[in-house]
# Entry
Amino acid sequence: MQGIVAQYLRWFSNHYDLSISLGSEFREMQQYFYLIHIQYLGFRFHGWAKQPDVKTVHQFIDKTLPFVLGHKNFKTLGSSRTDAMVSANHAIFELFLKEPLNEEQFFHDLNSNLPTDIRAIKIEATDEKFNVIQSPKTKEYLYLFAFGEKCHPFTAPILSSFMDNLDIDQMKAGARLFEGRHNFRKYCTKPSEKVVFEREIEKSYIEENTIYQASFFPEISYTYHVSAKGFMRNQIRLMMGQLLRLGKAEISLDDLRQSLVNPDEVPLDYIAPPSGLILNKVML
# Structure
């Protein structure tokens, strides 16, 4: 089990340059392992990861668990870090305990105590061989957007609206250019020295939105689909930013193509708003 913790620390430090201390009591207590699948609306949260003086999803979960378990002798690790205001249709965290759970009762009690914008959707037992950080094979994100009008304020938590008239066909063509293996050096903010910029995008395409609908949604909206094994800090929002610039005719398809070939170290400066981004599914 110490090997799993070591892998987690190496992965985390390589990607986020954060100093994390997991004491000996954490390593010694891991006898029962559970995967908790959740959904959350990220609009009021400052992302997944715990941070001082702000509300985060991980913080709320760890504050809720003592009421559900009746003790504080547990640890949790998330499979994905989402930014402030980013939502999740499917995310996973691992729960480490000394004693086994009554899974049905725990599931009921957890949902009864979580705030209304966080919901558990599944619980499953796993073992010490499972690594919640390394095991996901693919993470799929969606970015919901509309353009050409000011949208109803109720759409703000999950859909970004742009007043500009965008060339959606040009944006669709640009989205396909991200597919495959490329150097995403320009598509990452504040990378650590050990970040690997060569990344493979499995799918990248834009289509008319048929996934999320509501009476206050605009008549036509769009979804940008993108999936890969993992993403760097702000990578998807920077990719979406380039697609928006493409739609405004601020850059060309060739400009976008060149940004993926031997890029310089100057990061892109247009990051799409966070509230349109949704972690749609984590595939194990």
